[in-house]
Automatic annotation (TrEMBL):
<dbReference type="GO" id="GO:0032357">
    <property type="term" value="F:oxidized purine DNA binding"/>
</dbReference>
<keyword id="KW-0004">4Fe-4S</keyword>
<dbReference type="GO" id="GO:0051539">
    <property type="term" value="F:4 iron, 4 sulfur cluster binding"/>
</dbReference>
<comment type="similarity">
    <text>Belongs to the Nth/MutY family.</text>
</comment>
<protein>
    <recommendedName>
        <fullName>Adenine DNA glycosylase</fullName>
        <ecNumber>3.2.2.31</ecNumber>
    </recommendedName>
</protein>
<keyword id="KW-0479">Metal-binding</keyword>
<dbReference type="GO" id="GO:0000701">
    <property type="term" value="F:purine-specific mismatch base pair DNA N-glycosylase activity"/>
</dbReference>
<dbReference type="Pfam" id="PF00730">
    <property type="entry name" value="HhH-GPD"/>
</dbReference>
<dbReference type="GO" id="GO:0006284">
    <property type="term" value="P:base-excision repair"/>
</dbReference>
<dbReference type="InterPro" id="IPR015797">
    <property type="entry name" value="NUDIX_hydrolase-like_dom_sf"/>
</dbReference>
<dbReference type="InterPro" id="IPR003265">
    <property type="entry name" value="HhH-GPD_domain"/>
</dbReference>
<keyword id="KW-0378">Hydrolase</keyword>
<dbReference type="InterPro" id="IPR005760">
    <property type="entry name" value="A/G_AdeGlyc_MutY"/>
</dbReference>
<dbReference type="Pfam" id="PF14815">
    <property type="entry name" value="NUDIX_4"/>
</dbReference>
<dbReference type="Pfam" id="PF00633">
    <property type="entry name" value="HHH"/>
</dbReference>
<keyword id="KW-0227">DNA damage</keyword>
<dbReference type="GO" id="GO:0035485">
    <property type="term" value="F:adenine/guanine mispair binding"/>
</dbReference>
Length: 345
């Protein structure tokens, strides 16, 4: 079909040289696909290179401990991806002798691997004709064919996958899948695409109907929750501090943080200082306390906005399980805490 031929021709002339595109080995392809979920290529690339250097094979990744994996992942966000990545590597190394499942349906059974990732690995590694459907694919197809299906609906993925499958040359699924994603990433971008230089500008339905900025249709808005975090950065007489592991399910699971007092709203010094002595330092008298940042740092996650304050708390004596600054820097932290440690401690 004209669409597929033009698309692949565009791709071969414009594609970026990315390391995971120069192989059919499922391990680096899987790594890159997990890393690039919710992440731009420019941001994900250094992490991919760090991981493949530290863990050249799935066996190396399986042998690592979780904290090593989380430390290397630090700053990439959506940390459940890293935990699932590690568990899946262990499953492949220990249960499957290091061999990835060889088809879409079996790949789907792996922890952390959804329809999109399974389709990417199956088509790129095994040439299985299964279409990938991500935000780029929704955008390109909805605009080119003027499809106004709400992509927030559960049924939308099936509809777009069927359309992509119909367009896909069955003897070359890998190039088609790479091409449509790359076209959405580089040319048919979400805002103000340059339609004047587009290879489809004579046949794109959205362009003919002046609907480019209206497609794809997505109705569901995520409700954002505000949370207020007060971190106690303790220093005892030896200048040691304390941290704790976030073991609850939810954000930053298994990462480390300073002792935390979460409040309903942004609180002042009096309220926080009262809570500090009551909740944390019954065994050590608080000598002094002051704000590192008078204005809250707002750390935006997809579904939560965290309003973060760091408080310097000096205590008498020595704290139990205290650690020094050098040891502190070896632990995996959420990026907002890591940045604070590097800048202010």
């Amino acid at each position: 079909m004209i669409f597929s031929n033009l698309l692949i021709q565009w791709y071969l002339q414009n594609k970026r040289d990315l390391p995971w595109r120069n192989t059919t080995d499922p391990y680096p392809i899987w790594l890159s696909e997990i890393m690039l979920q919710q992440t731009r290529v420019a941001q994900g690339m250094p992490y991919f290179l760090s991981f493949t250097t530290a863990f050249p094979t799935v066996f190396d990744l399986a042998k690592a401990n979780e904290e090593q994996v989380l430390k290397l992942w630090q700053g990439l966000g959506y940390y459940s991806r890293a935990r699932n990545l590690h568990k899946t590597a262990q499953h492949i190394a220990q249960e499957l002798s290091g061999i990835f499942p060889g088809n879409y349906n079996d790949l789907l059974k792996l922890k952390g691997v959804g329809e999109y990732t399974a389709a990417a690995i199956a088509s790129f590694s095994y040439k299985e004709p299964v279409p990938v459907v991500d935000g780029n694919v929704f955008r390109v197809l909805s605009r080119y064919f003027d499809v106004d299906t709400d992509i927030a609906q559960a049924s939308a993925k099936k509809e777009f996958a069927a359309l992509a499958f119909e367009l896909m040359p069955k003897d070359n699924p890998a190039t088609f899948n790479q091409a449509i994603m790359e076209f959405g990433a580089l040319q048919c971008v979400p805002k103000s695409p340059n339609c004047g230089i587009c290879v489809f500008n004579e046949s794109c339905a959205a362009l003919q109907k002046n609907k480019v900025n209206q497609l794809p249709v997505k109705s569901k808005k995520l409700k954002v929750r505000n949370r207020y975090f007060n971190y106690m950065v303790v220093a005892d007489e030896n200048d040691n501090t304390i941290i704790q592991k976030r073991t609850d399910k939810g954000i930053w699971h298994n990462l480390y943080e300073f002792p935390l007092i979460e409040t309903e709203k942004e609180e002042d010094f009096d309220c926080v200082s009262e809570a500090v002595q009551a909740e944390y330092f019954k065994d050590n008298t608080v000598v002094s306390m002051l704000e590192y940042n008078e204005k809250s740092i707002i750390h935006k996650l997809s579904h939560q906005h965290l309003h973060i304050k760091f408080w310097k708390v000096k205590v008498k004596g020595t704290i139990e399980n205290g650690i020094d600054g050098e040891t502190l820097r070896t632990f995996p932290f959420p990026i907002v805490i890591h940045n604070f440690i590097e800048k202010d401690l």
